[in-house]
Every structure is written in structure tokens, then in C-alpha cells.
């Protein structure tokens, strides 16, 4: 399990539920808290320059922004697996929290 350390050396365990990520303030989410969630893809969007999807677990739904993860060089996953993501598919994902535009989002690092 991925465990990060913040500036003061304290361990930060990954958030395991969507509601935990959604409950962060924008300032907290911008700290890049580790996330490890399992859920169902409910809304994929694959545009020319924009790639994202919504994942939902039993606590809620949240946007997963692949475009921003790539731009920030956070995405280290398999692009072939990413291309197979479809609505209704169960996925397990590791990533980090991000402030997003209107609410916290997840920036994925890898996906299966």
C-alpha cells in the first residue's frame, strides 16, 4: 500500500473512499494526498484533448482527470488499459487528490 510523507515527516495513508476525497477542501486536495479507490466507471469522456471519467463507489462519485495527470507527469499507467475503460466497468485506481476546478478530483497514477 502506498504511504506518502508530508513536509513534517508524518505519514499520510491513502484515502480509500470517494467520499473521503470529496470531503477535502480545495486547499487540502491540492496537497496531493494519496488515493486508492475501487469503483465503477459511470461517465467516461474521451475528447481530442480532454480525457476524464467519473468513478463511483458506495460513498459517492468523483471525476478522474487523466489529461491533468498527464500534463503534470503523474500518469504512469498503461495507456492500452486506459483505452479499454468503459461505462459500467469496475476499476481499481491509485493516484493523488487535486483541487480541481469546482470540487476535488483524482489524478490517476495507475489503473487496473
Describe the structure concisely for a colleague.
The chain has 112 residues and is of the alpha+beta class. The chain has helices spanning 18-22, 26-29, 66-71, 79-83, and strands at 4-5, 11-12, 34-46, 51-57, 60-65, 90-98, 105-111. Strand 6 (90-98) and strand 7 form a beta hairpin.
What does this structure look like?
With 112 residues, the protein is α+β, with helices and mostly antiparallel strands. Helices cover 18% and strands 41% of the residues. It is built from 4 helices and 7 strands, in the order E-E-H-H-E-E-E-H-H-E-E. The protein has helices at residues 18-22, 26-29, 66-71, 79-83; strands at 4-5, 11-12, 34-46, 51-57, 60-65, 90-98, 105-111. The strands form 2 sheets. It has a 5-stranded antiparallel beta sheet with strand order 5-4-3-6-7. A two-stranded antiparallel sheet has the order 1-2. The longest helix has 6 residues, at 66-71. The chain is globular. It starts with a strand and ends with a strand. The mean pLDDT is 89.
SSE blueprint and pairings:
Elements: E1 4-5, E2 11-12, H1 18-22, H2 26-29, E3 34-46, E4 51-57, E5 60-65, H3 66-71, H4 79-83, E6 90-98, E7 105-111
Antiparallel strand pairs: 1-2, 3-4, 3-6, 4-5, 6-7
Number of helices: 4
Give the radius of gyration.
13 Å
**Series of H and E elements:** EEHHEEEHHEE
Helical residues, percent = 10-25%
Amino acid at each position: 500500500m502506498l504511504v506518502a510523507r508530508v513536509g513534517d515527516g508524518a505519514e499520510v495513508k491513502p484515502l480509500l473512499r470517494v467520499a473521503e476525497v470529496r470531503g477535502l477542501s480545495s486547499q487540502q486536495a491540492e496537497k496531493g494526498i494519496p488515493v486508492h479507490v475501487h469503483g465503477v466507471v459511470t461517465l467516461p469522456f474521451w475528447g481530442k484533448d480532454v480525457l476524464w471519467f467519473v468513478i463511483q463507489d458506495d460513498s459517492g462519485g468523483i471525476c478522474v482527470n487523466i489529461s491533468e495527470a498527464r500534463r503534470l507527469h503523474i500518469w504512469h499507467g498503461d495507456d492500452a488499459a486506459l483505452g479499454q475503460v468503459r461505462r459500467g466497468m469496475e476499476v481499481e485506481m491509485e493516484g493523488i487528490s487535486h483541487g480541481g476546478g469546482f470540487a476535488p478530483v483524482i489524478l490517476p497514477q495507475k489503473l487496473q
